[in-house]
Every structure is written in structure tokens, then in C-alpha cells.
């Protein structure tokens, strides 16, 4: 037994299962009430969005402002399917198709626009996201500006957890592979990456598609949890919200994005009590955090036991030096 | 028999001719210098050879496994796969990555496992990653960088950064290596080591080396043949002794003391 426990993946699996069970028990005993459950759903969805945008912007170095567009594709696909096929199979089909459609759009948009760099790419992706929104605004099947309501809810804590952890693991695995490192090399130096044999267009598009795929999943979860969709939800500001999570957590840090998504949701929930000042506080907090930690909460580091050990060591050596 | 044959290579930037009608022939195993005053177009030649720039006119042919393949019009990553690798004048390492990752990324072209396998870490992933790890360590040991493998590239001393760039270029398994001012910014001791290293890797890895260098001691000592570029044109080509006596070269370098090299 101790032998098995020493394996790191067993520990991780245990931690994952425990987290799931604890929240599950708290939810079913109603200690976490419906209101907080909605916060948890927001957190999970924002984690998926944040981590997937971080893959594009933080790891591959492509500044995208189009995440809301990909999210809306997943959301509408899932909503339209579950409205006609109201069972778990329909929901899963909706999530899968939503993600695949988002990835396809990501491919079509990415191929021409990823030749652009920096600000130009940001503007092109922003335009793409607005085009998607306006298409949904004018389509019959999406019910235009009035939006879709009474979308059946299939998303519960279990699905949220499965999809969030699944996305995190897959993106982490990808980044730990040669393909993921090729993406990171593009961020570091495009010309050097290219001359070292990396097909930069291919890997930019791949990273963009994976990001879009995950955003599609997040959108589908959103549609199925919050009953109601309208095109306005997926405007420019939604993309900015996701970007804030990524920048706040640290470009190039998965655990940073997770932390930032949790932190921002908690702050925003805590500030619900002061509706007039809420946005002022929120903005102030962002300014303060950025002033004192411009590299984001985690920089490009990852949260791990080793990170804490190093942190401890550096604190001790600082004290010793002083 | 040649490994690289460049024919009438020309590059113009909206009217300005950077290099014009360059002809070059490199034989396998040669160590060749490319020299010239500042702005002569040396780095432009490198950028054309590696596909960073697309030539305006002219052809480049590369011999790989006995077959002649064209390089002009190809993308840099394809040219890299054909067997051309280079270093950069202003070091272009992946600064925020470790020494180890810098070299490991350059081995990407040999990776065969799919993206699906990278998501789920299938057996092919572990098998090939283990191989990558071993190959990278082997190369780092050759360059005596293995004890610094976990350091960020940007934190290395200057000389180590230059050597790491060479190691990274070799990780792509080239048959022709282009070195852009490898000795720039090095002190005399580091330069001496570098000269040894360059001749040594040529034999160890069976390379043909084309080298841009301003340090005449380096060029005259190790190069078997030298091309001299001025105003985008090849003005001379020959052994170091021939180049030293060439009138045109001395004129181009007026004020620079190559006689004493």
C-alpha cells in the first residue's frame, strides 16, 4: 500500500477524487447553497476559458481577443441540440459538437490571421469574434437578439469537475510534449523556432484550434448551466474578461490562470454586497495587483510543492542575509 | 561534387540591392569563411540560405544523400529538415527556457508521435521522450553544458550562450552548419576554445561549415577557403593566403590590418 502511495500519480489521483468528493458532499448537504454553486460553475467555466486562452496567448505568444466568439459557438451549438434532444446523450453530443465547431472556426480563422503579429492579430481576432456574434444575432435558429431561453440544465458539479480537470490535464500534457514545446519556442523566438525545424504556421494554428476547442466546451457548459443565452453575452467584454484572468494569473502559467479564475470569481461574489461600488473595487484591485505584480500572480511558474520549497528557501536565505 | 551550389543569388529590398549575383560552391567537409566589411550582405546571404528571406532571383541547390534538391523558395523549417542549420549574429536562444529545453526543442523534427499521443501520453510518447532526453544529454555533455542543463538560457555567461546556440543547431542534425560571427564579443581565451571547438565538431559530426567572422585570426587560421563579399557582391574567393594578397580585398578593407593576421 505504501509503495503505491509513493507514486506521484496515485497521490494526484487521490487529491483529485478527494476534492471532488468534498465539494460533492457539501453540495448535496446544501452547505454550499445554490448561489455559491453558481459561483463554482462560473469558476470552472472561467478556468477552462482562462487556461485555453493562456495556451494561445501565454504559451504560443499569439495575442487573441476572440475567445468570446469561440465560446459562443460552443454555447449555441449545445443549447440548440439540448433544446431538441433533452437527455444526457444530447448534452454530451452538444458539448462535443460545440467544441468541434469552435475548433473548425478556429482553423478557418487562424490560417489567414495567424500570419499577423501582436496588435494586428488582436484586432483581427476581435473582428472575428464580433462577426460570429452578429451572425448569431441575425440567425433564425438562435432566435436573434431575444436569445434562447429554457435550455435544459444537465450540468452539475460532476460534469463541471470532469470537464475542468479533463481540460487542465490535456493542456498540461500537451505542453509537456514536443508539440507543446514547439508552441513555446514560437513564443520565445519565431525566427529561431522556424530555423530549428518547427513549422510555425502549423503550430500556431494547432494551438489556436485547441484553445478554440476548449472555449467551445466552456461555452457549452455555460449554456447548459445558466439556462439562457443571448448574443450580447459574448461581446468584446467577455473576451477581455478572459484576458484579465490570463494576464492576472501570469502569461504562461496554467496554475496561475486557475488561481486567477478562482480569485476573481470570489472577489466579484464578495463585492455583490456593494452593487454601486462593485466595479470600482474590482477595477482598483486589478490596478493594484498589476502595479505590484506586473508579471501576474504566478509569472510563468507553476504552482507545485517544489515551488513552495523554493519559495521557502529564498525567504530563509533573505532573512539570513539581512 | 558539392554540398551547396549557389547560382546568381540576388536579393533586393524595394529597390535596394542587398546581394547581387552571388555564386558559391561548397564541397562536403570544407570549412569556409565568408568575410566582408560591415553591410556587405553576409548575414543576408545566411538569411537567404536558411529561407528567412526569399531570394529575388537565383538558385540554391543542396546535395542530400547524393540527390540534388533546390532550396530557393522553401520555408525555413523545410530547409532545416533538409540539413541546414545556423546560429545567429545577435544570439537568438529561447531565453526563458532551460538550456536543456533549448536543445531538446531543436530535436523536434525527429519526433514521430502524434498530437493525440501528446494529449494522452500514450506509450509512444514515453518511448520517444526518453530517447529525446538521452540524445539531448549526450549533446549537452559534448558541449560541457550538462551541469547547467536546468539554468535559463538567458542566465548563461556570454560564451556559454554562443556554445549553446551551436549545440542547438547541431541538435537538428545538419550536414551544413552556418555560423554567424561565433566569436563576436568573446575574449581571446574564449575565442581560442571556440576555434578548437569548430574544427572538432566538423570532424565529429561530419559537417561542412560556412562561417561569417570579423576576427581575422579566426578566419585565417581555420578556414580552408574564403569568400569575400563587398557591396553585395563576391569580390574574391580563394585560400587564406590568396585572399591576403588580393588587391581588391585589401581595398575593400582599407584601414583594416589583415596583412598581419
**Mean pLDDT level of chain B:** 91
N- to C-terminal distance of chain B: 31 Å
What's the CATH C level of chain A?
A: Mainly Alpha
- Assign a percent range to the helix content of chain B: 25-40%
Say how many strands of chain A there are.
0
Poorly predicted runs of chain B are none
The CATH topology label of the largest domain in chain B is: Rossmann fold
Shape of chain B: globular
Q: Ranges of chain A with pLDDT <50 over ≥5 residues?
A: none
Q: Please, what is the oligomeric state?
A: heterodimer
CATH fold-type name of chain A: ABC transporter involved in vitamin B12 uptake, BtuC
Structural class of chain B: alpha/beta
User: What general outline of chain A do the C-alpha atoms trace?
Assistant: globular
Q: How many E-type strands of chain B? A: 10
Number of helices of chain A: 14
Plain-language structure description:
The complex is a heterodimer of chains A (322) and B (261). Chain A has helices at 2-6, 8-28, 34-59, 67-84, 88-113, 118-138, 157-175, 178-188, 190-195, 200-226, 236-249, 254-270, 278-292, 305-321. With 322 residues, chain A is mostly helical. Chain A has a single domain (39-321), classed as ABC transporter involved in vitamin B12 uptake, BtuC (Orthogonal Bundle). In chain A, helix 2 (8-28) runs antiparallel to helix 7 and helix 3 (34-59) runs antiparallel to helix 10. Chain A starts with a helix and ends with a helix. Chain B has ten helices and ten strands. In chain B, the strands form two sheets. Chain B has a six-stranded mixed sheet, sandwiched between helices. In chain B, helix 3 (99-106) packs parallel to helix 6 (158-171). The longest helix of chain B is centred in the middle third of the chain and has 20 residues, at 123-142. The chains are: A mainly alpha (322), B alpha/beta (261).
Brief summary of the model shown:
The complex is a heterodimer of chains A (322) and B (261). Helix content of chain A is 75%, strand content 0%.
Amino acid at each position: 500500500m505504501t509503495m503505491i502511495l509513493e507514486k506521484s500519480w496515485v497521490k494526484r489521483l487521490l487529491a483529485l477524487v478527494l476534492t471532488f468528493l468534498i465539494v460533492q458532499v457539501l453540495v448535496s448537504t446544501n452547505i454550499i447553497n445554490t448561489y455559491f454553486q453558481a459561483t463554482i460553475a462560473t469558476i470552472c467555466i472561467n478556468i477552462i476559458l482562462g487556461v485555453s486562452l493562456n495556451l494561445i496567448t501565454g504559451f504560443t505568444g499569439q495575442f487573441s481577443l476572440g475567445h468570446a466568439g469561440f465560446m459562443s459557438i460552443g454555447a449555441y451549438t449545445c443549447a440548440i441540440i439540448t433544446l431538441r434532444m433533452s437527455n444526457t446523450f444530447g448534452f454530451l453530443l452538444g458539448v462535443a459538437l460545440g467544441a468541434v465547431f469552435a475548433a473548425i472556426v478556429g482553423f478557418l480563422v487562424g490560417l489567414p490571421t495567424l500570419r499577423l503579429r501582436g496588435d494586428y492579430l488582436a484586432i483581427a481576432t476581435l473582428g472575428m469574434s464580433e462577426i460570429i456574434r452578429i451572425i448569431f444575432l441575425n440567425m433564425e435558429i438562435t432566435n436573434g437578439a431575444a436569445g434562447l431561453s429554457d435550455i435544459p440544465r444537465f450540468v452539475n458539479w460532476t460534469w463541471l469537475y470532469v470537464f475542468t480537470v479533463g481540460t487542465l490535464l490535456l493542456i498540461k500534457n500537451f505542453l509537456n510534449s514536443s508539440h507543446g514545446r514547439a508552441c513555446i519556442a514560437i513564443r520565445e523566438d519565431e525566427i529561431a523556432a522556424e530555423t530549428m525545424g518547427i513549422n510555425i504556421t502549423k503550430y500556431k494554428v494547432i494551438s489556436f484550434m485547441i484553445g478554440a476547442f476548449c472555449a467551445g466546451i466552456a461555452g457549452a457548459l455555460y449554456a447548459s448551466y445558466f439556462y439562457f443565452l443571448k448574443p450580447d453575452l459574448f461581446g468584446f467584454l467577455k473576451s477581455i474578461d478572459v484576458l484579465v484572468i490570463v494576464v492576472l494569473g501570469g502569461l504562461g502559467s496554467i496554475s496561475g490562470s486557475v488561481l486567477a479564475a478562482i480569485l476573481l470569481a470570489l472577489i466579484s461574489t464578495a463585492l455583490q454586497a456593494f452593487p454601486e461600488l462593485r466595479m470600482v473595487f474590482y477595477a482598483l484591485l486589478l490596478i493594484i495587483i498589476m502595479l505590484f505584480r506586473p508579471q501576474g500572480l504566478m509569472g510563468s511558474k507553476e504552482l507545485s510543492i517544489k515551488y513552495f520549497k523554493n519559495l521557502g528557501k529564498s525567504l530563509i536565505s533573505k532573512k539570513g542575509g539581512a | 561534387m558539392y554540398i551547396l551550389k549557389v547560382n546568381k543569388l540576388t536579393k533586393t529590398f524595394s529597390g535596394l540591392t542587398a546581394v547581387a549575383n552571388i555564386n558559391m560552391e561548397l564541397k562536403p567537409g570544407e570549412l569556409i569563411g565568408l568575410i566582408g566589411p560591415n553591410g556587405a550582405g553576409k548575414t543576408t546571404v545566411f538569411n537567404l540560405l536558411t529561407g528567412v528571406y526569399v531570394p529575388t532571383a537565383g538558385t540554391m541547390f543542396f546535395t542530400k544523400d547524393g540527390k540534388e534538391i533546390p532550396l530557393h523558395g522553401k520555408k525555413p523549417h523545410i530547409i532545416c529538415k533538409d540539413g541546414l542549420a545556423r546560429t545567429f549574429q545577435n544570439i537568438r536562444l529561447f531565453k526563458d527556457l532551460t538550456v536543456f529545453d533549448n536543445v531538446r526543442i531543436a530535436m523536434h523534427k525527429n519526433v514521430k508521435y502524434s498530437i493525440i499521443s501528446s494529449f494522452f501520453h500514450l506509450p509512444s510518447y514515453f518511448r520517444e521522450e526518453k530517447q529525446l532526453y538521452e540524445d539531448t544529454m549526450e549533446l549537452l555533455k559534448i558541449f560541457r553544458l550538462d551541469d547547467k542543463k536546468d539554468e535559463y538560457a538567458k542566465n548563461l555567461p556570454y560564451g556559454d550562450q554562443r556554445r549553446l546556440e551551436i549545440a542547438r543547431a547541431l541538435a537538428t542534425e545538419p550536414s551544413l552548419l552556418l555560423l554567424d560571427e561565433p566569436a563576436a564579443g568573446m575574449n581571446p581565451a574564449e575565442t581560442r576554445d571556440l576555434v578548437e571547438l569548430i574544427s572538432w565538431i566538423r570532424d565529429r559530426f561530419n559537417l561542412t561549415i560556412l562561417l561569417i567572422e570579423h576576427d581575422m585570426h579566426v578566419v585565417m587560421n581555420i578556414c580552408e577557403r574564403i569568400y569575400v563579399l563587398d557591396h553585395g557582391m563576391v569580390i574574391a574567393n580563394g585560400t587564406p593566403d590568396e585572399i591576403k594578397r588580393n588587391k581588391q580585398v585589401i581595398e575593400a578593407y582599407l584601414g583594416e590590418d589583415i596583412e598581419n593576421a
